[in-house]
# Entry
Amino acid sequence: MNLDSMPCYFCQRNIKEIDFREAKTLEIFTSAAGKIKVRKKTGLCSYHQRRLTQAIKRARFLALLPYLKR
# Structure
C-alpha cells in the first residue's frame, strides 16, 4: 500500500476540522487495543493525522473514548 495511491479520509470528504465529539469516526482510527493507528496504516495526510491525534486525546480526556480497551 502506497500513501500516494491512498487518498486521505478527511481530504476526500472535504472535512476541514475533526470534531472530537464524533466518537464513531475517531474509533475507525484506533486499534483493537485502543492505540492510535500510525499514518502508514490510516493513509491520512500529515495535517489531518496531527489533528486526529489531538481529537482522540481530547475525546479520551472527556471520557468519550476509552484509554484502553479490555
About this structure: Residues 7 and 40 are 12 Å apart (CA to CA). The chain has a mean pLDDT of 91. The two ends are 30 Å apart (CA to CA). The chain has one domain: 9-61.
